[in-house]
Write the structure tokens for this entry.
Amino acid sequence: MISSSKTRLEECTVEVLIRPYTPADWPILWPVLETTFAQGDTYAFPTDWTAEETQKAWIVVPLATFVAVSEDNQLVGTYYIKANQMGNGAHTANCGYVVPAAFAGQGIATRLCKHSQQEARRLGFLAMQFNFVVATNTRAVALWQHLGFQIVGTVPRAFQHPQHGLVAAYVMHKWLADPPQQP
């Protein structure tokens, strides 16, 4: 989620440390995720998910989850990384990002996405794909495009937005590595 309708893209204006999630982070991470999903305007997760359901999706299922914390140890963002598909599609990563509204527009999502691309390469992924970017989340769409992602598909009327009704969702993709040379 990248809230706000502004599309101004900024470099990170606050000092943040992006580090692996630990169970001690859950008490501050859960309210951020709960609020984001309850708003129902950026993720296709149920708006009434329990802590356990959210924890499974954001912490347990992914390969890794990261948190971004400020100098004064406030949670300013998070992301997960996992394989987009199993088997022959497992070379493509999938990530989800959340930045609390209070920290939107400070370049934190940019830092998180850049970090996730480095992490994806480190884990051996060759590409990254976002399967369901809500079209009305224009700030996220602009940021992902700025960072080299392309819209490779549009799913019409895929998302039931609480204010706008049925809106499109984009599939966005970025190749992270050069393909291996053919013999």
User: Anything to note?
Assistant: The longest strand covers residues 150-161. Residues 1-9 have pLDDT under 50 and may be disordered. The two ends are 42 Å apart (CA to CA). The beta strands are 16-20, 64-70, 75-83, 92-98, 127-134, 150-161, 165-175.
